[in-house]
Amino acid sequence: MKVRLARTAGFCMGVRRAMELALGAAHEAERPIFTYGPLIHNPQVLSLLEGKGIKALKELPEPGSLKGGTVIIRAHGVPPQDKARLREAGFAKVVDGTCPRVVRVQAIIRRAAREGRQVVIVGDAAHPEVVGLLGHAGGQGHVVSRPEQVAELPELQQVVAVAQTTQSEKLFSQVVRALEERFGRVEVHDTICEATHRRQDEVKRLARDNDGVVVVGGKASGNTKRLAEVAAEIGKPVFLVESEEDLDRSRLAKLGSVAVTAGASTPNWVIKRMLRELSFIRSLREGGFRFWLRRSFRFLALSQLVVALGAAGMALASQLLQGLRPDGDLVGVAFCYIYAMHILNQFLDKEAGQYNDPDRAHFLSKHRVFLIGTGVAAASAAVVLCALLGAVPFALVATMSVLGLLYSVPVVPRRLEKKIGIQRLKDIPGSKTLSAGLAWAFIVVVLPAVAMGLQSLSGTVLAFVFTLALVFVRCALFDVLDVQGDLIVGKETIPIMLGEAQTRRLLWWLTWGLCGLLALCAWAGAAPSLAWWLILPVAGIAAMQLLWARSWIMPGSVSEGLVDLNFWLAGLVALLWLAMQ
Ligand code: SF4
Question: Which residues pair with 187 in a beta bridge?
């Protein structure tokens, strides 16, 4: 079964901002920490926040009843009087998480009310955003959720119509038409948020192009329900699901292709779990070979064999770029070392993995003994192979193996940790991405230069920069996809420090800068002509960035494996180049 993920699926800007504020508060704000009402309409996120000690307040506390603590106002916003009451309650800090787009609607309503006009809000009267908006109308507001309700409104003068930000476009225009028929001229503000417009447009398109649509989101989420309604209007089967248990597997298996979309309050890890489950549902129309191929590649990617074989390919390319004779032992060391480090660090870093890659987390727990056993065997094999190469290579790899294993374990004493805010090497902001690049560069570039002697300084420098930059781009690209899980566990990755858009831009420039450097070195004769050929894997990673940014491929282990295939490509072009010499 073909599965297509909507580009707009998942957290919108306002929800992401509110989550960042709440998770930031969990790490540094004064406790106890509350949200005023559930932060978003998603049970998985709410239980996660509870696990972090953030509880939802059901009612406004009495004035002066609290002594400190923090309260977060959710993205939906609140009436102004509620915000004042939260301040009077005695919280040390009131964090306003109201989405800037909702703030804009509140401002439109306040201005209209000040000018003595009547405001009609098109939305669900009980929805917290609408309750908040009504509070800003100062008694001059009315809520309408269906066109028929316009007839029940009192006689109004100078009507201003606004929409709940997640309202259906169709319903809003129907209500506006009914208002114009009854009251004549109406000042219309289409306040349906751009994110909602895009989401609804995309789901219509996807419903037309696929045999069915899976809409993922909390059952209490209005915007999720509306997405399902919009998709259903196209006439294709729609599956509104909160978790993977809700999937109707037998009906889905009859479909050749399904589109997956999600409400604005659905976290990425829930979407990823859904994609994983859908990938197990074999469509009755799907051929056995394709299914087998997909499952086999998934196994290779999850077991880290794709990336380890990629390291072997990079080792060969790097040796040739440095003007060295290809050495099978050094290629074997690269394979064993990268396999061991990737496997063992995953076990030491399970927490974020549960959110970022549920598929991988499940695989790790299922094959725990096999993976740890082969990881330890590979690390030992790397050290033994290096011992055969000489004392210096042995010392280099032994030091790097220890550093690699220490990366995720607490090394700073507790009393120092409080002062510097770091317990493990991985707590250093951005360290994961950089250290992965450095580890690869040492194993595939520095180790051969040390073991076999330096042949070409410019070739070695180029090989080092090539490996470091390519691995850095790979890891930072995965960090962009993992940003929600990393935020939850308080990891300081590059996308968290710079923001997703800035990181994507940085990676884009880094990729093309690397292509330019390879071309320049090859053209100037500072490196063998292989440098021209190595532009291919760099361009391959650039293409993956583009495909991901446009959501033409789905996040998950298989697509991460596809990124790693570019390391295979580096090895393959190196072999071809060697054969042609
Ligand atoms: S749907 Fe739009 S208005 Fe509502 S929280 Fe998200 S970004 Fe803000």
Answer: 160
